[in-house]
């Protein structure tokens, strides 16, 4: 079972306040609903289609609770969906017209055009209703990848106004989402592991939020161990490179018989460096008499390098 499915399973069992139920259902219909005219325009149905059983169960329950009208459920087996079941939940539009208008699912007083209106943000004014709206949107058109892989959560919709409301609602909680327009639809997505985790919690998927965090903690630990190892290797390489450069400069003085002309302070550190090529600057400093700090050692060795470079380049000029 995919992680997405498990999240939907948990969300579909969330208890919700009566003020929130409409917001959740509205988001579900905007994401997964269609309008179907049957029997020569005599009957207009609002239908929600989904392959997720938990989502179907949720839609059914919410419709039953909120509209005083029978709710029909049909199940289709579909070869195209590799034998998955397609759940179709239908309700007579007459009985929920005011609801549909209120949530911008159909324009006021128009016939049967779905998803063409703009939703009044006031209809999800409370934070609890905003969270319910996100939950409905996720159940209707969302998915989240298993945290073992790259972090990714998305909402897919054809409804342009829904892109705006969803983005605003996600931003309202301080989370960041991006939108990409595809051929026939829009994808609102989150890539930040912290934000995805927060959104799982906001929607009410607390158990799956914990599972998500468990995987993330392990992954982060592995990454930071790798980072430390890489970092230490990099530092070691840097130290070795520097030491080799210093030794080359010192040898230049020796080979050209000008080593004795170096000031005492530089000569002393140069001898130590030749003798102990793999010691750190700090360790070299401790072998000096008197003891010299790391920056002092660094300064003197740089001075030797500079002088050697200068002499070399002058020689080249001649
Ligand atoms: Zn509410």
Please write out the topology:
Blueprint (H helix, E strand, L loop, with lengths): L2 H9 L6 H15 E6 L4 E8 L2 H14 L5 E7 L5 E9 L4 H6 L24 H15 E3 L8 E5 L2 H13 L5 E4 L4 E5 L2 H11 L2 H50 L8 H12 L5 H6 L7 H24 L1
Antiparallel strand pairs: 1-2, 2-4, 3-4, 5-6, 6-8, 7-8
Helix pairs in contact: 2-3, 2-5, 7-8, 8-9, 8-11, 9-11
The structure holds zinc ion.
Report on the structure:
With 318 residues, the protein is an alpha+beta fold. The chain has 2 domains: 3-204, Roll (Endonuclease I-creI); 229-317, no CATH class. It has helices at 3-11, 18-32, 53-66, 97-102, 127-141, 160-172, 193-203, 206-255, 264-275, 281-286, 294-317, and strands spanning 33-38, 43-50, 72-78, 84-92, 142-144, 153-157, 178-181, 186-190. The strands form 2 sheets. Strands 1-2-4-3 form a 4-stranded antiparallel beta sheet. A 4-stranded antiparallel beta sheet has the order 5-6-8-7. Strand 7 and strand 8 form a beta hairpin. Helix 7 runs antiparallel to helix 8 (206-255). The N and C termini lie far apart (77 Å). The structure holds zinc ion (ZN). Zinc ion binds next to helix 2 and helix 5.
Task: Please outline what is shown here.
This protein is an alpha+beta fold and 318 residues long.
């Amino acid at each position: 079972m995919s992680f997405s499915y498990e999240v939907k399973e948990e969300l579909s069992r969330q208890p919700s306040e009566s003020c929130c139920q409409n917001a959740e259902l509205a988001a579900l219909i905007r994401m997964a609903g269609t309008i179907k005219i049957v029997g020569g325009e005599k009957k207009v149905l609002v239908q929600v289609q989904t392959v997720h059983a938990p989502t179907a169960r949720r839609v059914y329950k919410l419709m039953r609770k909120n509209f005083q009208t029978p709710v029909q459920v049909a199940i289709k087996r579909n070869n195209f969906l590799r034998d998955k079941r397609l759940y179709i939940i239908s309700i007579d539009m007459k009985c929920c017209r005011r609801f549909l208008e209120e949530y911008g699912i159909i324009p006021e007083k128009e016939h049967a055009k779905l998803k063409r209106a703009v939703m009044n943000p006031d209809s999800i004014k409370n934070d609890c209703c905003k969270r319910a709206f996100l939950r409905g949107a996720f159940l209707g058109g969302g998915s989240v990848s298993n945290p073992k892989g790259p972090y990714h959560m998305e909402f897919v919709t054809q409804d342009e106004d829904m892109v705006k409301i969803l983005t605003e609602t996600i931003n309202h909680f301080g989370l960041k989402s991006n939108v990409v327009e595809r051929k026939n639809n829009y994808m609102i997505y989150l890539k930040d592991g912290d934000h995805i985790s927060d959104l799982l919690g906001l929607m009410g998927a607390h158990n799956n939020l914990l599972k998500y965090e468990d995987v993330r903690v392990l992954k982060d630990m592995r990454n930071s161990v790798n980072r430390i190892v890489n970092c230490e290797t990099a530092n070691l390489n840097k130290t070795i490179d520097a030491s080799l450069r210093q030794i080359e400069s010192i040898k230049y003085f020796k080979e050209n018989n000008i080593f004795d002309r170096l000031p005492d302070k530089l000569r002393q550190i140069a001898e130590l460096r030749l003798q102990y090529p793999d010691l750190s600057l700090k360790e070299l400093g401790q072998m000096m008499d008197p003891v010299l700090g790391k920056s002092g050692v660094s300064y003197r060795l740089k001075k030797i390098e500079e002088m050697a470079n200068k002499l070399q380049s002058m020689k080249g000029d001649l």
